[in-house]
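ok posting inputs for the S-adenosyl-L-homocysteine job
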Amino acid sequence: MKDDMDYQKARERMVERQIARRGIDSPRVLEAFRSVPRHLFVPQHKREFAYSDGPLPIGRGQTISQPYIVAYMTEALELQGEERVLEIGTGSGYQAAILGELAAEVYTVERHQDLAKTASQRLQDMDYENIHVIQGDGTEGLPEHAPFQGVIVTAAAPEVPRPLLDQLDEGGRLIMPVGSRGGQVLKLYQRREGDFSVKALSPVAFVPLIGEHGHSAP
Ligand code: SAH
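and the output
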């Protein structure tokens, strides 16, 4: 059984080798990855792999993304600390915790009741009072908490759900994997004077976003 010190060392190594060395250089982002205990977000029997360079299963056929991808998407949002951020696809809650370190308020939506419940409890146990887990179809966004200065979708669909673009604040950024079930490209949108700029970033493979404005069946 590893103790906390071993996990801390493994985490330092993850930040150095998998994240910093691959070009993520925002000090705030790197600090967030140093402080969130990723091993507490994976199933107990997978803990020894928590700091390895890949995704891991978290139940319900879903995965916690590779650390580097989480870092890459996080950095693209360019959070300064004052933002209200919306995440679609809570999963384990790890990405939400990272966002919780970097923004003022985080709203995260998960369609699976059991995953939402586990993540919510976990984040509460870790005293993340600025993270709000909501069970539901995230493709509708959360109009009651909009506008958001950052939106991150951690599941893939052929197009960005329109409600999510509508709920983006002026100057706000949205990142999401867009493409088929087989493969997608990360796309970064920014709202500018009512219009949207779009940049295609790297190729990725995410689980499907299932809902009213996403894929229709699991
Ligand atoms: N960000 C997560 C990993 C996400 S995996 C983490 O850090 O662990 C993608 C998640 O999106 C899955 O848990 C899946 O159930 C969820 N999901 C898929 N479609 C959704 C929808 N329409 N609304 C909310 N969550 C959805």
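notes: The domain at 52-204 is CATH 3.40.50.150 (Rossmann fold). The longest strand covers residues 168-179.
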